[in-house]
Write a structure and sequence with these properties.
By secondary structure, the chain is mostly helical. The protein is built from 1 helix and no strands. The longest helix is centred in the middle third of the chain and has 77 residues. It starts with a helix and ends with a helix.
């Protein structure tokens, strides 16, 4: 084999190694982004669940207040 062929082969091997290195770095970046997005999604799901619980408590409080007001109005009508 001539030196030219070996040099070309060496260049192609080096390009392949460089490409593989870049792709590995990109994979690591994407893994980090995926992890961050997964954590964000988990946090949002937890926040959603907390908001649903708070909403239910507020609905129950609202219903209780409505019942109290109705009871008071009923008593006022009895007095009249």
């Amino acid at each position: 084999m001539s030196i030219d062929v070996l040099e070309k082969l060496e260049q192609k091997v080096q390009m392949a190694v460089d490409t593989i290195s870049l792709l590995q770095m990109e994979i690591e970046e994407l893994k980090e982004q995926n992890q961050a997005l997964t954590q964000n999604s988990t946090q949002l799901e937890q926040d959603k669940a907390m908001m649903a619980e708070e909403n239910e408590r507020m609905r129950q409080d609202h219903d209780a207040w409505q019942n109290r007001v109705r009871a008071l109005l009923g008593k006022m009508e009895e007095v009249e």
